[in-house]
Amino acid sequence: MMDNRLESPDIIERDSHGYLMFFENWNEDVAKVLAKEEDIKLSLEHWEVVYIVRNFYLEFNFSPTIRMLVKVIEQKHGKKCGNSRYLFRLFPKGPAKQATKIAGLPKPVQCL
Prior knowledge:
By secondary structure, the protein is mainly α. Helices cover 52% and strands 0% of the residues. The chain is globular, with a radius of gyration of 14 Å. It is an enzyme of class 2 (transferase). The active site is at residue 111. Its main location: cytoplasm. Keywords: Cytoplasm, Transferase.
């Protein structure tokens, strides 16, 4: 029997703020639905940040702060992309909020 939760991203369990209840339910189709709800059309730059956020969470078991995210991106791509302006251009309502939601992570503690 097939697991329909992964095939129908619009019916995956979420909390009252729209974050996935279960990290394991995430896939790129789910990310596209979440991004659309945030009025974001995912570009290669968005995907890169989404995967950086997911990998950070897998390694450290918490979502990166904006400062941490900036450092990781700066190490990979230099100062041109490793700054908060770049992240806010991609995620205008806040990288901590939008990138973590699209990446399928729990709502960050520091997010109101």
